[in-house]
Amino acid sequence: xxxxxxxxxxxxxxxxxxxxxxxxxxxxxxxxxxxxxxxxxxxxxxxxxxxxxxxxxxxxxxxxxxxxxxxxxxxxxxxxxxxxxxxxxxxxxxxxxxxxxxxxxxxxxxxxxxxxxxxxxxxxxxxxxxxxxxxxxxxxxxxxxxxxxxxxxxxxxxxxxx
Amino acid sequence: xxxxxxxxxxxxxxxxxxxxxxxxxxxxxxxxxxxxxxxxxxxxxxxxxxxxxxxxxxxxxxxxxxxxxxxxxxxxxxxxxxxxxxxxxxxxxxxxxxxxxxxxxxxxxxxxxxxxxxxxxxxxxxxxxxxxxxxxxx
Lengths: 162, 138
Description:
By secondary structure, chain A is mainly alpha-helical. Chain A has helices at about 1-5, 15-25, 40-60, 70-80, 90-95, 100-120, 125-130, 135-160. In chain A, α7 packs antiparallel against α8 (about 135-160).
């Protein structure tokens, strides 16, 4: 669809780079962010749309039902100490306003930003765009992503909650 | 005006990410534990749809985009180390917070302060990569 609208290759995480390029102070001047970000306004417009879509789906037309996760997941989360698994999209235990939570969210966000740029894409750019156009580098990236995710989900998250 | 189509597709994308629960931390944990087909179904259908549409575009007589440019599918630069290593780092972050770069914008749109904190972290991580790029194996 993005190719059709304007010959654009779809990927979300590049916007993080554009935002850095826009805000880079002239005295810092890292090469990686020295390019004409104005050519990528379409991409920034797309994520503004994404946030707007999130607002429509999550606030205006909010779904009152809990997230219908499987019984196995519910049992696992209860064992991890969550009181209401699936009550909202994200667990209050990790996302409510506290210094501890925000440190955790910020730190994991750093990993997401660093990793996606190092790998040159995220779930959209590699798993969807890359795999669907049969590109080998994207397969490497997806394998790395999934291995990293399993490591977190199987070991880091339970350890952290303990 | 020429950006309106991108805005509309972005709205659709954000709407679907929330409604399909791809922006849910619970769904991501469930996926990494192989406890449901839900997320795999979303990813699988997205990949198949993208595959079919790009194949159709390749076979059209006129391969022009709406704005008149000829459609090209860019090749990812060859390599292995950066894709696997970067993927691992991103994956570890994703497994922790259950948000990848698309859903984080959608969730921020629902008014989640936590998502905005993640976004702030992700911007710093991106900047860190830019600063360290020349010292990393690629």
